[in-house]
Design a protein that fits this description.
mainly alpha, about 0% strand, globular
């Protein structure tokens, strides 16, 4: 596993200086060998977990988490690219996906450990799969692309046995996309089955439950139930997604969920639908999704005869 030890050592030294502590102060405070600390700050040794825990106590911050950010030379670049990709996908801004693909392929040429290399390869496959569906309408190949991506980290992945595997967040996202593509192939029942599995799996996994994926799953479930005219189910999942987003103080997908809630209320003749849609409209602006704001207004007018 590759670490940028020099960069981590410099960051550690800067934190220590900020707190006006000497190496000797740290050594005496938490019983770390002074020579070991010097070597860590000079990027000469790989620190043990117990040493990271002692440093966390001495510096009053999670040094183990800081250390993880130095697992590869381009960790920050990967995180920035992932955030941009998320924004482009959430905004339906597919025109920028080709540039995202170029950047991820460029990143894949850099030195990194296998864990991050697999993650980059899976994100490349995710983008290629989305583009296959949008540009070529080759939904069969789209699913094959997602299955190949899952095979990078789940040996001999078989879609027929998808419920038998344990997933991380990115793997579960790829499975979610398979489910959505199943709907495009007019297999709504399989789509709902996969999305419900992903949702239940997310709730049982603390790390995934703390991400934005669960909000996206509830949105996709709400939209899928809307498309098959099960509007009570659509409303149920919109509300579940909103509850999750609010409890996690996440605004990134909240507007989408309120939009789905408002449309479900409209179909169920619930008078508050206009108020809900107005709130969704405001949230799209606040969350910097101006294109989706206009798409929402157009969709409400054209498909439902609603002026928001």
């Amino acid at each position: 596993m590759y670490y940028t030890l020099k960069g981590f050592g410099e960051a550690l030294k800067e934190i220590r200086h900020t707190l006006h502590l000497t190496q000797k102060d740290i050594s005496l405070k938490v019983s770390i060998n002074l020579e070991t600390l010097r070597k860590i700050e000079n990027g000469l040794v790989l620190p043990k977990q117990e040493t990271l825990d002692l440093l966390s106590s001495a510096l009053n911050m999670d040094i183990a988490e800081l250390f993880l950010t130095y697992r590869m030379d381009h960790y920050d670049e990967l995180e920035d690219l992932k955030r941009e990709l998320d924004f482009h996908l959430d905004s339906n801004n597919y025109a920028l996906l080709q540039e995202d693909l170029i950047q991820f392929k460029k990143l894949a040429t850099h030195n990194m450990n296998q864990f991050f290399r697999n993650q980059v390869l899976q994100l490349i496959a995710l983008i290629e799969g989305v583009l296959l569906g949008i540009k070529e309408k080759r939904y069969d190949l789209q699913i094959e692309c997602y299955i190949q991506a899952l095979s990078y980290t789940i040996e001999n992945f078989n879609l027929e046995h998808y419920q038998t595997y344990y997933y991380n967040e990115l793997e579960l996202r790829l499975l979610m996309n398979i489910g959505l593509t199943k709907y495009t192939l007019e297999d709504a029942s399989h789509c709902v089955e996969i999305l419900l599995f992903c949702s239940n799996f997310s709730k049982e996994n603390v790390q995934i439950a703390s991400s934005n994926l669960l909000a996206k799953l509830h949105y996709n479930l709400s939209y899928t139930f809307h498309r098959i005219d099960l509007h009570k189910k659509a409303l149920e999942h919109a509300n579940l997604g909103i509850q999750y987003a609010v409890s996690n103080r996440s605004i990134s997908f909240l507007a989408h969920l309120y939009f789905r809630k408002g449309i479900a209320q409209f179909h169920l003749d619930i008078p508050q639908y206009l108020e809900t849609l107005q709130y969704a409209k405001d949230l799209f602006i606040i969350s910097n999704h101006e294109d989706l704001y206009h798409q929402m207004l157009e969709s409400c007018k054209v498909h439902y005869g609603i002026t928001v």
